[in-house]
Write a structure and sequence with these properties.
The chain has about 150 residues and is mostly beta strands. It contains 1 helix and 14 strands. Pfam families: META.
């Protein structure tokens, strides 16, 4: 169990974002072992959740009526999201500092001209993207594209 509260492991300078508790039931025994400590998410698990598009290729996404977003589900290895008009989903392969999107599908609603939608989809569909998370900001990029998201 991961508990969302700061944790100090009694070593100078070792503050962690989360407390962690693990209970282990020993098979074929009545014995139960409990462990507790401190921890933090590392690697791709930090991508989990919903991220709202803030900038695309240095252009701000200024207050659209329905802001584009992307949601990563690490355990299920998939993504989904909203372009501002249409919904999309696909599979994703995670590595330490990049993701690869595959098997992308998008609804096909008739919408007003939406340049952001086209640019957003072209930037993420069937691509290998590098990523960096800094606080509540996610940056995805390729040689051609740069997208900045804010965690919701």
């Amino acid at each position: 169990m991961v508990i969302d509260r700061s944790c100090d492991d009694n070593m100078p300078g070792n503050k962690f974002e989360y407390a962690v508790k693990i209970t282990l039931d020993i098979k074929d025994s009545d014995e139960v072992m409990s462990y507790s400590g401190c921890g933090k998410y590392i690697g791709t698990a930090t991508l989990n959740g919903v991220w709202q598009l803030n900038k695309i290729n240095e252009k701000s996404v200024d207050n659209p009526p329905k802001p584009p977003n992307i949601q990563f589900r690490f355990e299920e290895r998939n993504i989904s999201g909203f372009t501002g008009c249409n919904r999309f989903k696909g599979n994703v392969e995670f590595s330490d500092n990049s993701i690869k999107t595959t098997q992308f599908s998008v609804t096909n609603l008739a919408c007003k001209l939406n340049d952001i939608e086209k640019e957003f989809l072209n930037s993420i569909a069937e691509k290998k993207l590098n990523y960096l998370i800094t606080g509540d900001t996610l940056t995805l990029w390729t040689a051609e594209d740069n997208l900045v998201f804010i965690r919701l």
